[in-house]
Amino acid sequence: MTAARKKLVIKVTAGSDAPERCSQAFTVAAVAVASGVEVSLWLTGESAWFALPGRAAEFELPHAAPLPDLIESIRADGQITLCTQCATRREITEKDVIEGVRIAGAQVFVQEIMADGVQALVY
């Protein structure tokens, strides 16, 4: 019998407006994925822009891993979700986002964080 895989849900609200907080969220998500943890990263607020192609490449923070690399590692084995309301406010649709990013709302977020064995973080 194998142990259930642990899940980590991370909600990142910061973008270029708070680069250290933003980078921390993506870094924690990428490290968790690399450690075998099931990860669901939610892009809300200003981080919503990173669901668009090329936007992560514009992000810079000295001594931090490049955001495009972190996103790729998260997408490889994790789930990235763009908040429905955040997408709507920014006129972002499913056809606009990078491959593998889904758009979902609060109901899905609540379902994820209320599941057994889930840990949630907000940045």
Automatic annotation (TrEMBL):
Pfam families per record: DsrE
Protein name: DsrE family protein
Organism: Streptomyces beijiangensis
Lineage per the UniProt record: Bacteria, Bacillati, Actinomycetota, Actinomycetes, Kitasatosporales
